[in-house]
Amino acid sequence: MSTEVKIPQQLSVSQNPAPQGVKLPIYMDNHATTPMDPRVLEEMLPFFIERFGNSASRNHSFGWAAEEGVEIARERIAKLIGATTKEIIFTSGATESDNLAIKGVAEMYREKGNHIITAVTEHKAVLDTCKRLEKNGYRVTYMPVQKDGLVDLDDLKRAMDDKTILVTIMAANNEIGVIQPIAEIGKLCHERGVIFHTDATQAVGKIPIDVTKQNIDLLSISAHKMYGPKGVGALYVRRKNPRVQVSAIIDGGGHERGMRSGTLNVPGIVGLGKACAIASEEMSHEAAQLSRLRDRLRDRIMSRLDETYINGTMDHRLPGNLNISFAYVEGESLLMGINDIAVSSGSACTSATLEPSYVLKALGTGDDLAHSSIRFGIGRFNTEAEVDYVADRVIETVERLRELSPLYEMAKEGINLKDVKWAGEAH
Amino acid sequence: MSYSDKVIDHYNNPRNVGSMDKSSADVGTGLVGAPECGDVMKLQIKVNRETNVIEEAKFKTFGCGSAIASSSLATEWVKGKTVDEALAIKNMDIVKELSLPPVKIHCSVLAEDAIRAAIGDWKKKQESTKPVASAVTQ
Q: CB-hemisphere CA count at 13 Å for A67?
């Protein structure tokens, strides 16, 4: 006795005509990077050939022209986050900003203490920097997060001691989009005289950030996550109440008030500035639009598929982020089925380490569901028609792969998969 | 990661998807891997008792495209072979046929394990059913 499963044949890209108004492939991985806004490119272009000067050249008009571009950018960035221009240090991107903030504080305040607090769901730019400091005699507390992805403020209070010099907690997570209670964390830090750094790579330009209201001392920014160019970012460094200092990690000509030497990437900085100016103008409108599209994607998928689980809280989340686990379906095989759509998976098969997402594991998501997760990152240029197409392709592919899944079959037979003695469990 | 044309073909048109009655005396079932590891394969064979030839093979796989392709290919290869011939299939044969990259070799290992587990299950059934069957006919 055998049952033949019917497999739909229309699966490869060429066999799938795009509906009207949808151009394939669709980019919906805006947490990885964003396309540049054409308005940003337009602003940058004069700074490659006409205004090519070195912004540090103080004695001629070429230098002044470049410097003017840099200073306008500095103002625009400062305005977006409620800072002053002297508090903005340009870097090559958020990874460098994170390194400068954490290593810079660790070295500058070494005599005060050697304890740093961070969270297990941070980006590797923070986690690996902290790990390096551990080798150099610093003590690091990696705080767990709750099931919803948020850090527990009581945990943070308990973790602080008289040797704590720095707390580094991200503003919004790159995988699950969960927004941490930054203002409250900053308040706790300031009450205890501890410096607070936040990696705001995913948050700046997406949700309101105000370094004063949110008690932030150091904040990392990346241009390419907010429709600007790659290879440029910034670090906000508080100048008063309290004045924060960081030791430089790159030595040289003393640019950026000695904190970051190296000739400035003038076109990139101009682009970052323009990206911030656009965000200042359009963020509230855009956030509403992205939330609407995200909820539409979620509702369409979840109304048609059972046993799908959202990873991380929906209550404190970036507008464009959706992270769903599709039980009984492995993430990489799902990506392969929707290969005209660019999204990401927390599946081990998509990572270099063959380990499933450490962020999802930190939420208590089982390894099986971490393998089954997909991250959707909706951005400025995604349309409603694209969202509908993505939802339909995901639904059809998950249904097909579930028909192919022995786990789905067992679950439908009423077998509890947790009770099964798996042959490969020792792996 | 880019996939070979053969992996894509098996992924888009998997051969021999389905299930057979695992309680049948002629059917051997292999279930290998674990959900936590991201790969589970179920491979079933139906064997002719007289000839020991595998007359039918079915699979279902939870795993990446390479895991699906490896198990789909395994069912194609075991069909028509005797049990002993099927046992001679090695994971590196699958790697070669599907041009799997090093990071996907474990998928082929799992497919070989699945073939062995299915045959092992069938053999166990034969040992336990034979005396009973002869007792009935006597």
A: 12
- Shortest distance, CA A155 to any CA of chain B (angstroms): 29
Q: What is the pLDDT of residues A330-342, one digit of tens each?
A: 999 999 999 999 9
- 3-class SS of residue A2: strand
B37, B88, B92, B133: the catalytic one is: B37
Q: Is the pLDDT of residue A315 over 90?
A: yes
Chain B CB contacts of A356 below 8 Å? 38
Say yes or no for a CB contact (<8 Å) between B68 and A404: yes
User: Is B37 a residue of the active site?
Assistant: yes
Looking up tokens 């105000």 gives A210
| Complete domains list, chain A, with CATH | 13-36+283-416 (3.90.1150.10), 39-279 (3.40.640.10)
- Alpha-carbon distance of A149 to A357, in angstroms, equals 13
pTM (2 d.p.): 0.92
3-state secondary structure A378-417: CCCCCCHHHHHHHHHHHHHHHHHHHHCCHHHHHHHCCCCH
> Which positions in chain B have a beta carbon within 8 angstroms of at least one beta carbon in chain A?
1, 3, 8, 11-14, 17-21, 24, 31-42, 46, 56, 58, 60-65, 67-68, 103, 110, 113, 117
Cα B2 to its chain centre, rounded Å, is 25
Q: What is the tens place of the pLDDT at every residue in B89-110?
A: 999 999 999 999 998 999 999 9
Interface membership of A7 toward B (CB under 8 Å): yes
Q: Count of residues for chain B?
A: 138
Complete DSSP assignment for B70-115: HHHHHHHHHTTSBHHHHHT--HHHHHHHHT--GGGHHHHHHHHHHH
Count of C-beta atoms within a 10 Å radius of residue B55 = 12
DSSP-derived secondary structure letter, A282: H
For residues B114 and B32, the answer to whether their CB atoms sit within 8 Å is: yes
Q: In what order do the strands lie in the sheet with A195-199?
A: A88-91, A233-237, A218-222, A195-199, A164-168, A115-119, A139-143
| Residues B34, A427: C-beta atoms closer than 8 Å | yes
- B78-114 per-residue burial string, b: 16 or more CB within 10 A, e: under 16: bbebebeebeebebebbbebbebeeebbbbbbbbbbb
Residue A358, classified by CB atoms within 10 Å of its CB into exposed (0-12), middle (13-18) or buried (19+), is middle
Question: What phi-psi label fits residue A149: left (phi over 0), alpha (psi between -120 and 50 degrees) or beta?
Answer: left
Nearest Cα to Cα of residue A412 among B103, B55, B78, B60 = B60
Between A24 and A346, the higher pLDDT residue: A24
A354 part of contact set with chain B, CB < 8 Å:
yes
For A243, phi then psi, to 5°, come to -80, 125
Place of tokens 């997406």: A206
Distance separating alpha carbons of residues A151 and B109, to the nearest angstrom: 41
Contact A336 B11 (CB under 8 A): yes
Q: What domains appear along chain B, each with residue ranges and CATH number?
A: 5-125 (3.90.1010.10)
Average pLDDT over residues A24-34: 97
For A350-390, write each residue's pLDDT tens digit: 666 668 899 999 999 999 999 999 999 999 999 999 999 99
ipTM score for this prediction: 0.91
